[in-house]
């Protein structure tokens, strides 16, 4: 038996009944909002986790191809490769722009890759097998690593158990 500790100390009147019903309606609405927020965060967490798995496998293949292209370029340029790269360092072709996405009051930081202009050094090293240098300069590894980093940042934000209790 309860000692009356779980009961509200109010008189049974019509006004008190309507006040209690209003509190019940607002509590149900608040519970529904929190449930939708938790579902949205769980959905986003799962989609980000799937992207991480995909980009890991893709990154392994792309990095393997990039390493082969780099070694091929070094072999073809006869160790002049480092000098060519150092001579052609200028301003960055790709930059990262910070964006924030709001999911149910939780802000996810995302980095968006932005091209900073055309490739100024497109013809660098043409006299010494420049086509191998152009193979090294592909944007695939950068964009894949960028996507993977975005996903990892999202998981770090969404991982705390306080957001994902269901």
From TrEMBL:
Entry GO MF terms: proton-transporting ATPase activity, rotational mechanism
InterPro entries registered for this protein in UniProt: V_ATPase_D
UniProt keyword list: Ion transport, Transport
One family name in Pfam for this protein: ATP-synt_D
Function of the molecule: Subunit of the V1 complex of vacuolar(H+)-ATPase (V-ATPase), a multisubunit enzyme composed of a peripheral complex (V1) that hydrolyzes ATP and a membrane integral complex (V0) that translocates protons. V-ATPase is responsible for acidifying and maintaining the pH of intracellular compartments and in some cell types, is targeted to the plasma membrane, where it is responsible for acidifying the extracellular environment.
Family assignment from sequence similarity: Belongs to the V-ATPase D subunit family.
Protein name (Swiss-Prot/TrEMBL): V-type proton ATPase subunit D 1-like
Source organism (scientific name): Diaphorina citri
Name of the gene this protein is made from: LOC103519629
